[in-house]
């Protein structure tokens, strides 16, 4: 009887421990409007992007601690129009390390100007099907109606969801795939959509609902390995039109170190 009682107690302790276990989510901050600031609560333009640090962003939304075990890291603090190859490479390598160390999901706070480019780059270079969620804001953190805190809460909820896979964008309660997302407005909080593929799902009160599966071929079995790269090869885009003499421009680019066009 005593042994049975001890077994039952142990069972309930283990069960309670498992029920309380939260996924580990790392928040990697890169700047953008979500970290923007201006000396006016009513201003939603004219702010400086990339001012607020990751610790402040996390403290502004204490409710995310109920969703996951949170750790934060400042990767950069820039206006995303200034996004560079070096930051992309650092993000990809750090995310791969985090997943290898046991982190369950990653959230990247990011400016909206180049969010879709970063999302697709990571979709090609992250060797895992664990969730990576990019999130930003259309209004600075100092605005009365700042959308950043709610977006961040939703992003953590998505990164912590057991059904979430691969690289996604979470903005304005909607979930977009890295391969399909496009920024369609410069001011509206509903600034992102997926014209060709449609939304992947939505988030309500911290609950995630999917319309379809996010995992694509590149998400886990990507042939692009950035583990040992020191820098990304330089590839330029050359616009061509009839009688443009683009051969001259292409030759000049190759002579200046371009690896591909």
TrEMBL record:
Tell me which residues bind substrate.
80, 112-113
Question: Where is the secretion signal located?
Answer: 1-21
Q: Which CDD domains match?
A: L-asparaginase_II
Where is the L-asparaginase N-terminal domain positioned along the sequence? Answer: 24-213
Q: Per UniProt, which keywords does this protein have?
A: Hydrolase, Signal
PROSITE patterns the record matches? ASN_GLN_ASE_1, ASN_GLN_ASE_2, ASN_GLN_ASE_3
Q: Extract the GO molecular function terms from the UniProt entry.
A: asparaginase activity
Where are the catalytic residues? 33 (o-isoaspartyl threonine intermediate), 33, 112
Q: Please indicate if the UniProt record lists Signal as a keyword.
A: yes
UniProt cross-references to Pfam families, sorted A to Z: Asparaginase
InterPro entries referenced in this protein's UniProt entry, alphabetically: AsnASE_II, Asp/glu_Ase-like_sf, Asparaginase/glutaminase-like, Asparaginase/glutaminase_AS1, Asparaginase/glutaminase_AS2, L-asparaginase_N, L-asparaginase_N_sf
Biological-process GO terms, alphabetical: asparagine metabolic process
Identify its protein family.
Answer: Belongs to the asparaginase 1 family.
This chain belongs to the protein called: L-asparagine amidohydrolase
Source organism per UniProt: Campylobacter upsaliensis
């Amino acid at each position: 009887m005593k042994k049975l009682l001890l077994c039952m107690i142990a069972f309930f302790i283990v069960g309670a421990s498992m029920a309380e276990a939260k996924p580990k989510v790392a928040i990697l901050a890169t700047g953008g409007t979500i970290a923007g600031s201006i000396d006016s609560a009513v201003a939603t333009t004219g702010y400086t992007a990339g001012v607020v640090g990751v610790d402040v962003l996390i403290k502004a939304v204490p409710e995310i601690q109920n969703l996951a075990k949170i750790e934060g890291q400042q990767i950069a603090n820039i206006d995303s129009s200034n996004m560079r190859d070096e930051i992309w490479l650092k993000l990809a390598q750090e995310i791969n390390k985090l997943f290898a160390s046991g982190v369950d999901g990653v959230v990247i706070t990011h400016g909206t100007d180049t969010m879709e480019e970063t999302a697709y780059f990571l979709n090609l270079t992250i060797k895992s099907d664990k969730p990576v969620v990019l999130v930003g804001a259309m209004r600075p953190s100092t605005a009365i109606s700042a959308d950043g805190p709610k977006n961040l809460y939703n992003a953590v909820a998505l990164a912590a969801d057991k059904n979430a896979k691969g690289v996604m964008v979470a903005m304005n309660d909607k979930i977009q795939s890295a391969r399909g997302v496009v920024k369609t407005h410069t001011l509206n909080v509903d600034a992102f959509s997926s014209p060709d593929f449609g939304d992947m799902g939505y988030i309500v009160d911290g609950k995630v609902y999917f319309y379809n599966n996010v995992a694509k071929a590149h998400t886990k079995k990507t042939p692009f390995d950035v583990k040992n790269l020191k820098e990304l090869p330089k590839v330029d885009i050359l616009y061509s039109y009839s009688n443009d003499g683009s051969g001259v421009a292409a030759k000049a680019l190759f002579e200046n170190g371009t690896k591909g066009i």
